[in-house]
Amino acid sequence: MAIDKSWEKIFKDYGIHKHDFNKEPFYITATQIKRACQDFKETGEKEVRILCKQDQREDRPKVFIENNLFLLPVVNKKYVIIKGEGYVDIPEVKKSEEVYTSKLKFHLDTSLIGNSEMQHLDFAYASSLIRTFMKDNSLVLTIRGRKYTPQFSFKVGKHTIEVRSVQTEVDAGFEGEKQVVPVEAKNSNAKNTIIRQLYYPFKQWQAHTDKKVVTLFFAKTGDGYSIWHFRFKDIEDYNSIELVRAGKFVIRSL
To answer: How far apart are the C-alpha atoms of 172 and 247, rounded to whole Å?
Structure first.
């Protein structure tokens, strides 16, 4: 991958190969990344946003994979490289596909145009599939797009990570009488995802409400939709994520 040689250069320039990750994580800024990669010609080899986008295990550069490392943003234009498991598997839903009848009294023509994550999630919500899965008819759409986190901390192994004003983005978030439900959506079969995409919104909205915060992972799978409900056994532990339940659905209109 293009990012492999870029990160090799970054590691060499800042002596990261010699860093003891068992003792502490390594912090690096966007400015340092730019400086190390300034002589590369291709955008994918020097653009910080691209170099730091490692949403699945296989997206990581070779030097990260070989050393069991992953990357997290901790403040605007600053990152931390941590040793450990940064990702969670998205298991295949083994149960049979359930035919779900839309609660709408009419057919949606516009939902068939395009193939975006947000579009599929909007259709599932409009059909009341999200409400039905969560057993909560009070859920309404209240969260969308980019927002900045408040300050919070958490553990990765024995290390404490401090986060402040990191930009997060959820594909949709729903609030009901007793719970808030941020959703990370994909329009393809993802085998794994970086825990950050579920954990940061969880911590973010937990700071803004006394209601229970529930995290969902949603995906367009074939002709239907799959939903996974994850939770954190220890809300201060990044790696305490576990699957609660999952379902696979085909939506039929009336």
So the answer is: 19
**In this structure, what token pair is assigned to residue 249?**
């659905």
**DSSP state string for 191-204:** SEEETHHHHHHHHH
What does pTM read for this prediction?
A: 0.94
Question: Is 247 in contact with 96 (CB distance < 8 Å)?
Answer: no
Residue ranges per domain, the chain?
Answer: 2-84, 98-252
* Matching residue, tokens 């300050």: 151
Q: Which residues pair with 155 in a beta bridge?
A: 160, 237
Distances (CA, A) of 236 to 15, 65, 88, 152, 200: 31, 25, 17, 9, 11
d(CA 163, CA 148): 11
Q: For 160-207, write each residue's pLDDT tens digit.
A: 999 999 999 899 999 999 999 999 999 878 899 999 999 999 999 999
